[in-house]
Amino acid sequence: MSRRRFSYPISLAVVVAVLIALTGGWIAWWNYRSGEANVRALADSLFDQISRETAAETEAFVLRAPPAAEALVNLGGAPAKDELAHRVIAVLEANPSFTWVSYSASDGTFTGAYRPVGGGVKLNTSWIEDGKTVRDERVINADGTWGAPETTRDTLYDPRTRPFYTLAAAARHGVWTAPYVFAGQEVPGITYALPNLHGSELAGVFTIDFNLARLSELTRQLQFREHGRVVLISDDGVVIAHPSAPIVANHEPIHVDALADPAVHALLAAAPDAHGFTLAGETFIARTLALTGGPAWRVVAYAPESDFTAGLRDRVLASLLISLVAVVIAIIIAWLVARRVSRPLIALAGEMAKAGRLELDELQGRPSLFREIDMMNTALIQMKYGLRSFARYVPRDLVRTLVASGLDAELTGEVRTLTVFFSDLVGFTALAESRTPEELVKFLATYFDDMSTIIAREHGTVDKYMGDGIMAFWGAPT
């Protein structure tokens, strides 16, 4: 059964293309894996940094409240109404992160300075008169002067009933309230309340309020990737700050369960301290970090892994594209080189086939750029010279027949009836004595060549040359 043969140019082109494709694919895969590990390490480092930075910024935002409130308490005494107003205004202006600085006395009097949504500073004072709360509100001008009061009667506001007052009165030390919505402003806030104790008696409560919308602005500024987010959540699940989703609904802060952010839900469902999660088949990197001081909050930071690996994948695709182009170029070059090699090989095969048929007229080789092919050319020429000499002794048709039979020559004997021919030159001795060696060799060469040609033409076989004689026979081997 004959074996299947393949074309050398096509085989070489295919092998080269496969090797380049495998090598390029392996390099691209290795680069992607190592790059992915490096990107993940950098992403983890970035997440840790962002989480710490957010926590530090948030702590700096709120932790100025306790010392500021302590300073107000330590001033001592029962300052006059205007003096107290100047104090709270001074503390507010010295701390840009504060939204309200106020004092609620045990008799229901309230004095506070705040930053309205439109900017600037306002002073708010109220007192209870005939069971009703009267409020005066003034604009604090840029030069420190006070504008004319706007009076509102019966505001129904009694600071002693507010959560900050009752919490501080019960705790007898500084406390943080849960997030709530500022009355009349519809913005989320939180309050630090510090009781002002005279001995064991509660004289009032100093409070410092924060507009949590400022923290949402901070989280927007800390957006570190296209789809990355930083969110602040209290331990009881209230959303403190979010860069894009609303955090107030129906005059109440939004609980995390109602937050319009599925990534936060997926992270919290995975684990409160998880470093990653999966959402809709996409992998996310995440970090959570609890604040070390102030309110019981934690920072949640997350981003899809693709935000970090998109560039890497683009580079891998570019590498694969380059590899594909290299494969195409390699196929073309391999094809051309293989054709350059195969042409002389095909020609050599043709010349060898002719030599097998004893077609030995052309003895010139075909030079090649490739050393091995050139060596084959030289060997073929030498073989042709040997066969040409051999053909002088054996009829070419006989040799062709033997070659065509495909049988090996064997050293055996066989009885046949042969016709044997002997020839000799008359007077060769005298002739040899009268010629120079060169002339004699040339004469014999011509004689033997002519005689051998005639014998071969008549399908005889030259057995040997004997001096000036020739022995030939017919009838064998065919």
Explained architecture:
With 478 residues, the chain is an alpha+beta fold. The chain is 45% helix and 23% strand. It contains 11 helices and 19 strands. Strands 1, 2, 3, 4, 5, 6, 7, 8 and 9 form a 9-stranded antiparallel sheet that branches. A 5-stranded antiparallel sheet has the order 11-10-16-15-14. Helix 1 (8-62) runs antiparallel to helix 7 (306-356) and helix 7 packs parallel to helix 8 (371-391). The longest helix is centred in the N-terminal third of the chain and has 55 residues, at 8-62.
Strand fraction equals 15-25%
Report the C-alpha radius of gyration, rounded: 54 Å
Helix amount: 40-55%
Main sheet record: 9 strands, antiparallel
Task: Spell out the blueprint of helices and strands.
Layout: H1 8-62, H2 65-74, H3 81-94, E1 100-105, E2 110-114, E3 121-129, E4 132-140, E5 150-153, H4 163-171, E6 175-176, E7 180-181, E8 188-198, E9 201-211, H5 213-221, E10 229-234, E11 239-241, E12 248-249, E13 252-253, H6 262-270, E14 276-279, E15 282-290, E16 297-304, H7 306-356, H8 371-391, H9 396-405, E17 419-423, H10 428-433, H11 437-457, E18 461-466, E19 469-474
Antiparallel strand pairs: 1-2, 1-9, 2-3, 3-4, 4-5, 6-8, 7-8, 8-9, 10-11, 10-16, 12-13, 14-15, 15-16, 17-19, 18-19
Helix pairs in contact: 1-7, 7-8
